[in-house]
Specification:
Layout lengths: L2 E9 L8 E7 L6 H11 L3 E7 L4 E7 L4 E2 L3 H13 L7 E5 L5 E6 L5 E6 L3 E4 L2 H11 L5 E7 L2 E7 L3 H6 L4 H5 L5 E7 L8 E7 L4 E4 L6 H12 L3 E6 L5 E8 L2 E6 L1 E10 L3
Parallel strand pairs: 2-3, 4-6, 11-12, 13-15
Antiparallel strand pairs: 1-2, 1-18, 3-4, 4-5, 6-7, 7-8, 8-17, 9-10, 10-11, 12-13, 13-14, 15-16, 16-17
């Protein structure tokens, strides 16, 4: 039976067993969508990234959860860049990824080893009405001070804002109720604790995509950075996603781009068998 290489990387962390694990599968040519979805389901991670070479320092890139293909995934893009540079010998200073719904994404590596991604900014398109806030509060088990609607490809995300980081950590949401809300996903956020050096914290829930809670979500910061830029009056941030595994990100709002940077650690390398 044919085999493919597989790498698993913990993204947005400098140590194993933290951050967000992603699988990366380099390909010579695209597999059938059903096969890639089956591989992602078998991996049972938030995302599996698939790469196909498309020229010098350039690849086509797609991401699958265990149930659907997604239009953007930050942590699996970071993991892909890590695999290319640390495992497969790529030496280019800038890596370019051509995606189907999010355009061209670039990743560079800073002198301190952090991978720097340029991702598309998400724009606010309104606020959640009173009935929506009631439903959101019931699903999250706590009432946000406001909820902002952000546009994502073919859908929306709701950004639920709380007063303190402790409230975000304490959330114990009803995942089935969250899945019944209108948006694709729900991001909960609050200012960082005073004196922590962290500008804001977050958690992200995406049960409609088969992810009850995503450990660390680069794409969520495409909405978080614009929100906090307006609220805090600055464009550069240190962010912390306070899931059980946790992860740290550097973010910067640059016009219609959100620059998201993080570290990564290699967990495993191996081979997977696929049907001929």
């Amino acid at each position: 039976m044919p085999t493919l290489p597989l790498y698993q990387v913990d993204a947005f962390t400098d140590r194993l067993f933290a951050g967000n694990p992603a699988a990366v599968v380099p390909l010579g040519a695209w597999l059938p969508d059903a096969t890639m979805l089956a591989i992602a389901a078998e991996n049972n991670l938030a995302e599996t990234a698939f790469l196909v070479p498309a020229g010098a320092a350039r690849w086509e890139l797609r991401w699958f959860t265990p149930t659907v293909e997604v239009p953007l995934c930050g942590h699996a893009t970071l993991a892909s860049a890590f695999v290319l540079t640390q495992c497969l010998g790529e030496t280019a200073g800038t890596l370019t990824f051509a995606t189907r719904q999010s355009g061209e994404l670039t990743v560079t590596r800073d002198a301190d080893g952090w991978y720097v991604m340029r991702l598309p900014r998400r724009h606010a398109v309104g606020t959640v009405d009173a009935a929506g806030i009631d439903a959101l509060a019931a699903a999250l088990g706590a009432r946000p001070t406001e909820a902002v609607i952000f546009a994502v490809p073919n859908d929306t995300s709701w950004l639920a804002v709380f007063a303190s980081a402790a409230e975000i950590t304490a959330l114990a949401p009803d995942i089935r109720a969250l899945a019944g809300l209108p948006p694709r996903n729900v991001i909960a956020t609050a200012p960082g604790e005073p004196g922590s050096g962290v500008d804001f914290v977050s958690r992200m829930f995406a049960p409609k995509a088969g992810i009850d809670e995503d450990p660390v979500t680069g794409s969520a910061h495409c909405a978080l950075a614009p929100y906090w830029a307006e609220r805090l009056g600055k464009t550069g941030f240190l962010a912390r996603q306070v899931s059980r595994r946790g992860g740290t990100l550097r973010c910067e709002l640059d016009g219609d781009t959100v620059v998201v940077a993080g570290e990564a650690a290699l967990y495993l390398t191996g081979e997977i068998a696929v049907p001929a």
